[in-house]
Amino acid sequence: MRVVSPSRLLVFLVAAICAHSLAFCLNSSSDPDEPSNSTYHSTVSEVRLVFFATENNRPVQDLQKDDFAVIDDERVIRTFRSFSRTTALKLDLIVLFDSSDSVLPNFKQEMSSVMQLVSEWPRNSEDDLSVLSFSGTETHAVCAGDCRRSLTADQVDSSPKGGTTPLFDALDTATSLLSKRRQPDVLPVIILFSDGDDTVSKDSFGRMLKKTLASEVQVYAVDVNATAPSNGSATLQKVAEDSGGRYFHSGDGATKIFSEVINDLHSERIVTYALPQSSSDFHSVRILPTHNLNLQFRSRRGYYDPSNSTH
Amino acid sequence: MKKSLSLIFVFCSLPTLLLGQRGIYQHGSVVRMHMGDCVLAHHGFAVAFGPASPMPQEYCPEYTLLSENVVYVIVGKSSNQLIPLAESIDFRLHKNELAVRVDDAKRETKFTIKEMIVRSEWERIQRHMDQQMRASENQAAMSTRD
After folding, report:
1. Is-contact A116 A143, C-beta < 8 A?
2. Do A277 and B104 touch (CB under 8 A)?
3. Contact between A288 and B33 using a beta-carbon 8 Å cutoff
4. How wide is the angle at C-alpha A247 spanned by C-alphas A222 and A286, nearest 5°?
5. What's the rounded Cα separation, in Å, for the pair B119 and B127?
6. What kind and span of H or E run contains A225?
7. For A87-266, which CATH superfamily applies?
8. Contact B133 A277 (CB under 8 A)
9. pTM to 2 decimals?
10. What value of ipTM does the predicted structure carry?
11. Which of A78, A278, A293 sits opposite B102 (nearest CB)?
12. For each successive 10 residues of chain A (311 residues), what is the average pLDDT?
């Protein structure tokens, strides 16, 4: 058996202690507050769904969390992270009106409807209300920010008129504006006045609809067609229903339409739940009752998976 | 004597009949729902696998109902035949159909049974599908990062 001398053992011990200290110093030399080179990725895995409940065509006031289930891409979801009313939320609202050739015969009536809507909007609310028009090949800003106080009939009247109808491009512009200034506690809404007949847009109907759904904007469409419903009416109806909004015909009367829109927007519910797994990027959504089959629910038709950055 | 014997028989069998009536329902939970083809619900297998019919396309609700041991895929007979999607619903099998209690048990609504599968087997398939989906999601995330 080989015997190690005490001096060699001492040298070995000192060397071991030095190596340990050096390693410790190297490890602790980086400031813990300094950002490290590692990047951590996380995805927001929550779905937020705004919806409206009615029973025999009347709004339901006392809806409870267990009165409904969400069908998200075929899966039945009954466990929700939150459930509340939208009354606590601010609205970011764009009134978008058609001023192209095809609506000019009824333009005066359309203008008075826009003015009535803006003037009737509840003044005590903190909602943002902007007004845009579209004609020719462009979308024009008529009034931005707090239009409830600043919009005048002259402003509306002096907006560009005539020419072709870039409806899909205008919806795309309004959606982009709302998306850019999107806040978590704000609901984006477009109230659209048009005959629904697009004649010139660069954007297709499908792409515009996809963008609207991806941005969670609700569209309320007021059909200003004087005659019987047309292809344009079907377009307006599709955009409104798929986005969780509603379709009206101007013949229903401005007062009735606006009181319904305002009531609707201030009495909706929001439910949130964990994002379910799905093999497709698009999740179709439907809300159905758990007990009372007379309950009916209106919400957007679906959403694009938020964890997929391409949308 | 005969009369009293039959009375005793009726009294004895009554509780059994009542219990039987109450116990005919099984409990289950709907976990999936989508609008599918109505063909099977309207005409059965013969038409489902026969030549295409010129009738306009109609969509009927299709539900996946989980009971204790069996999973049923059932199809409604019209587009508006809905089941309340409560956590637990009562149902029973009746003449090759599945009858679901609705409106607080006041009435039943009948569905065509499209598929039946043992629950343990169904759960195994679901687990496998979930794993595959997660794997493809991870793969997509990795390729995005690269």
Report:
1. no
2. no
3. yes
4. 150
5. 12
6. none
7. von Willebrand factor, type A domain (3.40.50.410)
8. yes
9. 0.79
10. 0.76
11. A293
12. 54 52 42 48 77 92 95 96 87 94 90 88 79 95 86 88 96 96 91 95 95 94 83 95 95 87 87 90 95 93 77 51
User: What's the rounded Cα separation, in Å, for the pair B70 and B55?
Assistant: 34
- Which residues in chain B have Cβ-Cβ distances shorter than 8 Å to A76? 30-33, 85
**CB B30 within 8 Å of CB B61:** no
- Tell me the longest C-alpha to C-alpha distance in chain B: 92
Sort out which chain A residues have CB atoms less than 8 A from B137's CB and list them: 277
Angle (CA) B117-B120-B125 rounded to 5° is: 75
Closest residue in A to B102 (Cα) is A291
| pLDDT tens sequence across B60-112 | 999 999 999 999 999 999 998 999 999 999 999 998 899 999 866 578 999 99
Supply B118's token pair.
Answer: 């043992």
Can you read off the two tokens belonging to residue A107? 């333009």
Beta bridge partners of A131: A95, A143
